[in-house]
Specification:
17 strands, globular, Creatine Amidinohydrolase, binds magnesium ion, single chain, alpha+beta, 27% helix, 274 residues, four-stranded antiparallel β-sheet, five-stranded antiparallel β-sheet
């Protein structure tokens, strides 16, 4: 069941989405070598609670397992759902931070891959292509098109670089629940899947691996890693499908971009098209 949101509901989701963007910017202030992801987690939780909201992931249950923290923090070969720990960040790492909030009963969800210190050109390109895939996917979120149009746009762009698109995890609808219908895969065929309608609110979130698309889950039941140990990137926006116009991007990276000098997707990369 896909729940189409009223203007009033979209207004609520806009507020939740804005808080997620501001929370990620608070995290951005602290991302540097030597900082631990547990410290980043505390920054985020404190910020969310001070804004009369609650972390959406903390206590989230899947198959009897409860996620213990506010942020999912995923370093290098971790694709998503990494658990914050006491290991200091090292320069040269990618760090994907996924954040969810619930404000007045409505969820917000967004993810951003940071560079810890300077990263290799190879990693910067992975970030750029993943971000571009997100932008291309969002452009397809137009009433009358289909979920498969989003999926195809994301997949085609990433695979042109020889990257692996993760199949095991997908984007999703969002509203009064964190994960609603429809699913939004990052792979698929044009003109297939559910038709997009005004009032649909979805999270588009390419998870893109430098090498193989294959992943596995650690013994902790959460941490998803690339099968070949190569790096992965993840950007996520919440988007509302609008009547007779372009999609509205509810979340924003603007606050993050105010904090960090150059986001990794804007670093110059001269690697050639795969
Ligand atoms: Mg997320
Ligand atoms: Mg999501």
């Amino acid at each position: 069941m896909v729940h189409l949101k009223s203007e009033r509901e979209i207004e609520r989701l806009r507020a939740s989405a804005d808080l997620v963007g501001r929370t990620l910017a608070e995290v951005a202030r602290h991302v540097r070598p030597g900082v631990t992801t547990r410290e980043l987690d505390a920054v985020a939780e404190d910020y969310i609670r001070r804004h009369n909201a609650a972390p959406a992931f903390k206590g989230y249950e899947v198959g009897g397992r409860v996620f213990p923290n506010t942020l999912c923090v995923s370093k290098d070969d971790v694709v998503v759902h990494g658990i914050p720990d006491d290991v200091p960040l090292e320069a040269g790492a990618l760090l994907s931070v996924d954040c969810g909030v619930v404000l007045d009963g409505y969820y917000g969800d967004s993810a951003f891959t940071f560079a810890v210190g300077a990263v290799s050109e190879e990693k910067a390109q992975l970030c750029r292509v993943t971000y571009e895939a997100l932008v291309l996917g969002i452009a397809e979120a137009v009433a009358g098109r289909r979920i498969g149009d989003i999926s195809y746009a994301v997949q085609a762009h990433c695979e042109a670089y020889g990257y692996g698109i993760v199949r095991d995890l997908v984007g999703h609808g969002i509203g009064r629940r964190l994960h609603e219908d429809p699913q939004v895969p990052n792979f698929g065929r044009r003109g297939t899947g559910r038709k997009l309608k005004p009032g649909m609110t979805i999270c588009i979130e390419p998870m893109v691996n430098m090498g193989t698309a294959e992943v596995y889950t650690d013994a902790d039941g959460w941490t998803v890693r690339t099968a070949d140990g190569r790096a992965s990137a993840h950007y996520e926006h919440m988007v509302a499908v609008r009547r007779g116009g372009p999609p509205e991007i509810l979340t924003t990276f603007d606050y993050i971009e105010d904090v960090i000098e150059t986001p990794p997707y804007k670093l110059n990369t001269e690697l050639t098209h795969g």
